[in-house]
């Protein structure tokens, strides 16, 4: 028998879509998906977000409709961001029991019971008039420890309003411990914490800031508290600290430019690991696809599977509804 060229040996199992599906190492399933949603106070009709085509600022009523669609599709979770009418220096809308997220959580719980996991993003930046994630001192620097108290209060009102999980995204040191203590002292032992553990100061958050109408005062940035993208080992320290402080799940954010971080965290951590395909990642695919330069659906599926292949268990993605609809049409055969 003539020798078989090695290349043919590998290619045998790539010959047809069915063969490729049979030997695929990674699958994307509906249960992996978490949809980020925006809800805006005093909004009559959902308002489109120009930088995120297909994504809207929800009214309270349209948010409930969105939640029902997720339940019908089998998407297990949403993460909620609020846009208040009034902003102030201390971000009081975040921890007001009648703030927009708390009101929306109660609406959702009443409408859909436990059929959807409700995750509340926990941060002050959507509620402060300066756009930073915490309280500022007289020099305009974010004060870490004073901010922690407000995070703990926010966690309590979010839990009281029905959040299953609170997700601190402000990157203050000690935030997970402060929030766990705040929850436990108010009797919310069952409320879990998804820590934005490794969150980088990223240009890919651009469209999100339009979605929540946030501009950082004086052209500022978050590099003083979010991570420097030059650092990978530092992410492991952030994750280890958050776990020691009581995180139930950890997140890496953004996703696509940080697949190495996802992989490294996965190797060391047994907790559920989430990755956030952020607004800029979504917007890039939309924009290139609109110009006909890339195939939207193919790029969506490729990036999401890459994030899973790197080691993520759950993916926060603005594509959640679209990808769930595709997954329901049957097996994805590449
Ligand atoms: C902060 C927060 C941000 C995002 C989620 N939570 C913005 C930021 O850190 O500036 C970005 C999410 C996205 O870009 O999709 N509360």
Topology:
Blueprint: H1 6-11, H2 17-23, E1 33-40, E2 47-48, E3 56-58, H3 60-73, E4 77-83, H4 100-112, E5 117-122, H5 144-161, E6 165-168, H6 175-185, E7 192-199, H7 206-211, H8 233-244, E8 249-253, H9 259-268, E9 273-277, H10 279-290, H11 296-310, E10 314-317, H12 320-328
Parallel strand pairs: 1-3, 1-4, 1-10, 4-5, 5-6, 6-7, 7-8, 8-9, 9-10
Antiparallel strand pairs: 2-3
Bound molecules: ligand PBG.
The site of ligand PBG has 9 residues, from loops.
Write up what this structure looks like.
The model has no long low-confidence stretch (mean pLDDT 95). It contains twelve helices and ten strands. The protein is an alpha/beta fold and 334 residues long. It has helices at residues 6-11, 17-23, 60-73, 100-112, 144-161, 175-185, 206-211, 233-244, 259-268, 279-290, 296-310, 320-328; strands at residues 33-40, 47-48, 56-58, 77-83, 117-122, 165-168, 192-199, 249-253, 273-277, 314-317. The relative contact order is 0.14. Helix 3 crosses helix 4 (100-112). Strand 6 (165-168), helix 6 (175-185) and strand 7 (192-199) form a beta-alpha-beta unit. It has an eight-stranded parallel barrel with strand order 1-4-5-6-7-8-9-10, surrounded by nine helices. It has one domain (27-329): Alpha-Beta Barrel (TIM Barrel). Helices cover 40% and strands 16% of the residues. Bound molecules: ligand PBG. Ligand PBG binds at residues 121, 123, 125, 169, 205, 208, 222, 278-279.
Named at the architecture level, the CATH assignment is Alpha-Beta Barrel
Bound molecules: ligand PBG
Contiguous uncertain segments of 5+ residues = none
The overall number of domains is: 1
Please write the string of helix (H) and strand (E) elements: HHEEEHEHEHEHEHHEHEHHEH
Indicate the mean pLDDT. Answer: 95
What composes the largest sheet? 8 strands, parallel, barrel
State the distance separating the first and last CA atoms: 33 Å
Measured by DSSP, the beta-strand proportion falls in 15-25%
Query: Can you tell me the overall shape?
Result: globular
Give the structural class: alpha/beta
How many H/I helical runs? 12
CATH superfamily: Aldolase class I
Per DSSP E runs of 2 or more residues, the count of β-strands stands at 10
CATH class: Alpha Beta
What portion of residues is helical?
A: 25-40%
- Round the Cα radius of gyration to an integer and report it: 21 Å
Strand order of the largest sheet: 1-4-5-6-7-8-9-10
CATH topology: TIM Barrel
